[in-house]
Amino acid sequence: MDQMTLGLQLAVQGVLLGGIYGLIAVGLSLIFGVMGIINFAHGQMIVLGMYISYWILVLLGIDPYLNFIAGACILFAMGYLLQSSTVNRILDFPEAMQVVPLVAVGLVLENLILMFWGPDHRSPETAFNLSTIWIDKIMIDGSKLITFVLAIVLTLGVFLFLKKSSIGKSIRAAADNRTGAVLVGINVNRINNFAFGLGAATTGAAGALLLPLMPVSPYMGHDFTLTAFVVVILGGMGNLWGALLGGLILGLAESLSILVLPPTMKQVVSFILLIIIMLFRPQGLLKGHK
Predict the structure, then answer these.
(1) What are the tens digits of pLDDT across the range 66-98?
(2) 138: which strand partners?
(3) What terms describe the molecular function in GO for this protein (predicted)?
(4) Lowest mean pLDDT, pick from 75-84, 202-211, 233-242
(5) Are 133 and 142 in contact (CB under 8 A)?
(6) Residue 136 dihedral angles phi and psi, to the nearest 5°
(7) Which of 270, 263, 251 is nearest to 13 (CA)?
């Protein structure tokens, strides 16, 4: 394979990987954009979505590309309950005090996953596991392509819901001005519950769509959370399209870095990008909602 073909192949892989990164980050960005709080249990919620999808596949034979809706619904209910029972009570706390309850939730989820499913990696076979598409000399992984397309569709769906639906408009109003939303009769706590549930639902969907791409383990949550942080900071905290853009940039940077760096150093690239964006454009490439 010549250098030009290798570069094109890596660029294609980077774009597909970037769509996956964007999908991982959308829920985190949504929750921050509405409530200004960082969900430190984000990665563990994605892992829970992966295990839910895994067991639906094993028990019912329904592919993750279809059963992600069930995972999204379950995580929506869990997110709604978490917001109403815990997060609404800490919204006005100092930021340092908001961290501890959500880190604790993440640890509880990780240990519940360990208790129910054990520590072993699980790697199920799905319908598109070995599917590939060739365009001339460029190979496209079928599973990654489907996940990429669904990531775009889900992001667009959430965006349109927030823009067009009455609940979405209430969510945006509460995010823009909490006091003003209360004065015009919006039940802000209930809207926050729904918004957190929606953000959690996207993590459940992300977990299901990631299942065909990698073995699932209870300990993956911290890596997902870290990746999501880098992506949303790159794109702009609270900006859904910024999360997708940040994911694409990070995916391309990591993939193309293989041309000049050892593969084991690809994570260094993400942290270099993070440092650069924090120094020169801390609001992100697309200014965040808050």
Answers:
(1) 899 999 999 999 999 999 998 888 888 887 788
(2) 135
(3) transmembrane transporter activity
(4) 233-242
(5) yes
(6) 60, -115
(7) 251
Q: Which residues contact 244 (CB under 8 A, 6 or more apart)?
A: 19, 22, 26, 151, 152, 155, 235
> 3-112+139-280: which CATH topology?
ABC transporter involved in vitamin B12 uptake, BtuC (1.10.3470)
- Tell me the pLDDT tens digit for each residue of 147-206: 889 988 988 898 899 888 999 888 888 888 777 888 888 888 899 899 999 999 999 999
* DSSP H helix total and E strand total for the chain: 12, 2
The token pair that represents 37 in the structure block: 């709080």
Quote the distance between the C-alpha of residue 1 and its chain's center. Answer: 34
Find tokens 């870095």 and name the residue.
257
Three-state DSSP class for residue 61: coil
Amino acid making up residue 221: G
| Torsion sign (Cα): 109, 111, 113, 115 | negative
